[in-house]
Amino acid sequence: MRRYIQSKHQEEIETLTSLNNSFGENILDAEPLQLIEKARRFDSQHKQAILGLCVSSLNTEQSKENERSRVAIVRAMISLLPESLTIVKELLNKRSSKSNYETHFTLFCYLSWAQDLPELSTSSSDILVILENYLLTVSHQTARAVWMAADLLGNHWKVEAALPLLLKTAQEARYSVGRRGSIMGLENILDEIPLTSDDHNSIVKLLQRISMSDKSKYVKEDAKDAVARWRKLSGRELLQ
Questions:
Q1: Residue 163, domain CATH
Q2: Number of Cβ atoms within 10 Å of the Cβ of 136
Q3: Structurally, how many domains does the chain consist of?
């Protein structure tokens, strides 16, 4: 056991050292804009070398289990958008183990950079497509990755972009976990937009419909609870 812990710690040190050297920054502590500005100055060969390091590191057992390494790797990859977009998509399509979903969770923690920072704005529409596909197809709630995807869209993305996506996935996601996550994202948006807005009314009406018609009792309950919470907070009667 001691040898395993030492090996795991050594793996973390090697990964962090390699990424720190590649960026010339402390990958865990640097501000997002610092990393992105550094990445923009890298030539294609250097970018591909960093991405190769990220992928190979994620494939080791130690990095899969080590949160610090995983966070460092994800921060590096997001800084390298759009070059890393294909890798992000491939990682989110890997769903055979808990460590895959832990990587998904971490990605969803940092993909908001594509929304918040103009330097990565060209990737935001592609990220939305990836997020939509994730919610439409994910079948497990392992590592709370679905929850974090919904939080990303409901709390950290522009409403005008996230809302149509969540309205769709709340109805059309193949598995109940995707629909339940989407409902949570819609709840978050409800908290942010004016009560009198058309978008607000559209969300509430959809939640009412889902609470009566979805094939999953858990999805129905989530939608029903969301509407009840809305009624309590707003003091308004149910829309007809």
A1: 1.20.930
A2: 17
A3: 1
Domain that holds residue 210: 123-240
- Helix, strand, or coil here: 6? helix
Q: What are 47-70's pLDDT values in tens digits?
A: 999 999 999 998 876 666 789 999
pTM of structure: 0.90
Residue 179 φ/ψ, nearest 5 degrees: -70, -40
**219 within a domain of the structure (yes/no):** yes
**Structure tokens, 231:** 């009624």
φ and ψ at residue 50, rounded to 5 degrees:
-65, -45
pLDDT in tens, 66-124: 899 999 999 999 999 999 999 999 999 999 999 999 999 999 999 999 888 877 888 99
Long-range contacts of 151-158 (CB under 8 A, 24+ apart): 151/108, 151/184, 151/185, 151/188, 152/108, 152/109, 152/111, 152/112, 153/185, 154/184, 154/185, 154/186, 154/187, 154/188, 154/189, 155/188, 155/192, 156/112, 156/115, 156/116, 157/112, 157/115, 157/128, 158/115
